[in-house]
Fold this sequence. Notes:
alpha/beta, Rossmann fold, Arc Repressor Mutant, subunit A, five-stranded parallel beta sheet, four-stranded antiparallel beta sheet, 42% helix, globular, binds calcium ion
Amino acid sequence: MPAQTILVAEDEKDIRDLLAFNLKREGFAVLEAGDGNDALHLAGERRPDLILLDIMLPGLDGLSVCKALQREESTAGIPVIMLTARGEEVDRIVGLELGAADYVLKPFSVREVILRIRAVLRRGVSGGGGGHVLRCGGISLDVERHTALSGNIPLPLTMTEFRLLEDLLRHKGVARSREQLLDAVWGYSFEGYARTVDTHVRRLRGKLGPAAEYIETVRGLGYRAQERTRP
Ligand code: CA
């Protein structure tokens, strides 16, 4: 199996070198970018398996890079882990709402970063099950090809929205709590961020259009994908 490639986007050379060195030692192939535009360019050109993206980057900052990656069909499926300094509370949340798979606070331990990377990559692979297509109402989700359709119309989902919809469809007819969804989509539940789930469900429903009716709110608990027969 070829090495998985990580793009490290960080302008501070010491940190970039430290990450690159350790990632290589862990068996990853590493691409490096020192500013936002380079990061975007490399992501599009080389399609890494994961991007470590610092928020404070010269040129295009990390949040703008993240948005741009999500907008582009060829890069929208690449998981992004944001690197952020303490105190950037707002940026942290915004980062997740932008569709980042996870974030790591600076200063970080290299060990922690690598654990997060492995967790995110595992999430990406484990769901597979070989060309599996999940359906509910008019929604169909091809997990392996990472495509989502409402009827025949492609849905421009971010990676987070895709994973959220995937989890709900895998448990069709079953109520999923916000904690279960956090755990399934982000890999762990972090206290106080349950409303992040609500934000993503709201956006997901917006993109689903009429098919949003298949995602029901379960009061006091969370959400459920449910086939309905229209009256
Ligand atoms: Ca930086």
